[in-house]
Design a protein that fits this description.
mainly alpha, two-stranded antiparallel sheet, about 625 residues, globular
Length: about 625
């Protein structure tokens, strides 16, 4: 570990709730340096710093120890300057912390419910509390103002602002001219921390800052007073994010609000009738204007969706309050409200929903079920044209496996659907849509028919979810259905799934198969283990039933401490794609042959009969080499 550089000559203790941009502004003001110079000195970026990553709002990562040392802080104080402490309770922060290791270790895109391109603010907080240090360098730019669920200053009980009163642009707005994703024009020094750092709009003073003071609220326009209901909502959100209750409760509540906010925005003003506490007209106006802005955008650009919160704190307050009121309804009324809104709302396949469907993984179970039921009914009314035009004799629902084979994804014209269906949930959704093409099933009913669980354990990987989104349009489903018809599909996968619902590879059968694996000359014989037995059982089960390996039953002999799938996942992967000169190259063909024999035996069984006495030849077989 190289020696740490000298600390800054003078330091400032972080103010309560202060974020990293605020501390940089106050430190640069005290040291007569630019914020960029302070960030370079503290190890936040390396010179030459052409661009400062906005990810520093979320975490200091590997820079934490160096920054804390040079800024004369403890590591706990430095970490508290970022949004990372909120990650356990606010899922958008967690999403922003994820690193895409498959793409050169680059940072993931910051979630839109983390306000990374601007900030809201309270003028009274920026003016300070009257102490000497805050008289000189101003009050805190708080980290929580970067969360989309912060719309009221809980200290001063007023709406947060987001626009500079002079340049009328969002505070700390990021654009190409401003240069940095953490603060605009970070190379400029001499500004008070409460001054607007946006580039000036006047062409005669291009590249100069606006410089307006944000710590003095303008006489006009005056913001409406926050109602008791909105104050209560902000207090409840603040208490949850601040540590009250379990982290799971906070995550589920915030996610429920987010999903409902997208539904409210997509269906506004229809959602207004479900709010028993009418919003003031000023708040309704802001929300209506934001809805029109989204609808007026050309095309369906991903960055402009109903899942993106409004910049205005007032519009966010109206949106979240309406969402909270719907969530607070009793179960029957809430379910009816969701069915009514989704039935009258936009097409679920519209890209303007953004990632709304994916957030259901973090939602509360009752709310998730309500959405699924509402979507299920909606899906029965969606695009029934292709279903009525499809020849019912082409294939039946039982011919669709849970996991579509790769060769089914090859279009007759040569275009491949495989890239579209690379994600497990997308391929799962395609199987559901194929069943809907020849039946009256909705999404949830088709998923049950395929054997997909209605709920997944909360801590499972994010790709193990129900097929909520409809990833394929109707024309693509028709092409896929035509391809399946050309393969003369006759396998009854539903019969196989039902017959082998609890099947695992019997120990005697496994011993007979394993006994045929011989070591290469001069090498150590491969070892048998319950993990290999489980991986082999999964391989056979998924191949016969056409299902996902993750849903295969567990062998009874697996010790309790090994019943977590990660312990044999590498063995399963080696079995699926065996490397050269390994015993898996022998084992895979043996298991494939066994799977073909098992499939033939199951296909001869009456529906619902368990395969108790199948393949008796394996029962009497003895391993050739023990």
């Amino acid at each position: 570990m190289p020696d740490l550089p000298d600390p800054l000559p003078r330091a400032l203790a972080p103010l309560p709730g202060e974020g990293l941009p605020g501390l940089l502004l106050r430190l640069s003001h005290r040291l007569d340096m630019s914020p960029l110079q302070v960030l370079v000195r503290t190890g936040g970026v390396k010179p030459p710093a052409a661009s400062v990553p906005g990810q520093l709002l979320v975490t200091l990562g590997g820079r934490l120890r160096l920054f804390a040392h040079t800024a004369r802080l403890t590591t706990e104080e430095a970490a508290a300057l970022t949004l990372e402490p909120h990650g356990e309770r606010f899922p958008p922060v967690t999403e922003s912390l994820r690193i895409q290791t498959q793409h050169r270790f680059t940072w993931a895109r910051i979630d839109p419910w983390v306000l990374s391109t601007f900030t809201r603010y309270c003028p009274k907080c920026l003016a300070g509390d009257g102490s000497v240090v805050q008289q000189r360098h101003g009050g805190p730019w708080k980290a929580e103002w970067r969360l989309a669920v912060s719309f009221i200053c809980r200290e001063h009980r007023t709406f947060l602002r987001h626009l500079c009163p002079t340049c009328r642009r969002p505070a700390h707005k990021f654009d190409a001219q401003a240069g940095s994703k953490l603060l605009p024009l970070m190379q400029f020094k001499g500004l008070h921390p409460a001054q607007c750092r946006n580039p000036a709009q006047d062409q005669d003073v291009l590249n100069l800052v606006c410089g307006a003071r944000l710590d003095t609220p303008p006489a006009s326009p005056r913001l409406p007073a926050a109602s008791p209901a909105l104050l209560d909502l902000q207090d409840r959100i603040g208490v949850l994010l601040g540590g009250a209750g379990s982290p799971q409760t906070a995550r589920e509540y915030c996610t429920d609000l987010r999903i409902l906010s997208a539904i409210v925005l997509a269906t506004w003003p229809l959602a207004r009738e479900f709010n028993p506490a009418p919003l003031p007209k000023a708040l309704e106006h802001h929300l209506t204007m934001h809805r029109r802005e989204v609808d007026a955008l050309p095309g369906e650009r991903k960055q402009h969706t109903w899942d993106r919160p409004p910049e205005s704190a007032i519009a966010s307050a109206a949106l979240l309050h309406t969402a909270d009121q719907i969530r607070a309804l009793d179960q029957h009324d809430r379910d009816e409200a969701l069915r009514s809104l989704l039935r009258s709302g936009p097409d679920p396949a519209s890209r303007k929903w953004g990632r709304t469907d994916l957030h259901l993984f973090h939602a509360s179970l009752s709310f998730r079920s309500a959405i699924m039921q509402a979507r299920d009914r909606r899906s029965q009314n969606l695009a029934r044209g292709p279903s009525s035009r499809l020849d019912p004799n082409s294939y039946r629902s039982e011919h669709i496996p849970q996991w579509l084979p790769d060769h089914w994804l090859q279009h007759p014209g040569g275009d491949r659907l495989a890239p579209r269906l690379r994600h497990p949930m997308q391929r799962r959704a395609a199987a559901v849509r194929l069943i809907q093409m020849v039946s009256d099933m909705g999404v949830q009913a088709a998923a049950r028919f395929l054997g997909i669980p209605e709920t997944w354990p909360e801590r499972r990987a994010g790709n193990q979810r129900l097929p909520i989104a409809l990833f394929l349009n109707d024309r693509e489903v028709e092409l896929l259905a035509d391809r399946i018809s050309d393969t003369t599909c006759t396998i009854d996968y539903h019969h196989r799934r039902t017959s082998l619902a609890t099947w695992t590879l019997p120990p005697t059968h496994w011993a007979a198969i394993w006994g045929q694996v011989t070591p290469r000359p001069g090498t150590t014989p491969p070892l048998d283990s319950p993990r290999k037995h489980q991986a082999a059982s999964e391989f056979v089960w998924s191949r016969v039933t056409g299902s996902e390996r993750a849903l295969a039953p567990l062998i009874p002999a697996l010790p309790p401490e090994l019943r977590h799938r990660k312990h044999w996942g590498s063995i399963a992967n080696s079995l699926a794609t065996p490397g050269p000169n390994t015993h898996y190259t022998q084992l895979k063909p043996l298991l494939t042959e066994y799977a073909e024999e098992l499939a033939a035996a199951v296909d001869q069984l009456p529906f619902g009969q368990l395969p108790a006495d199948m393949m008796a030849n394996y029962e009497s077989s003895q391993p050739s080499d023990q």
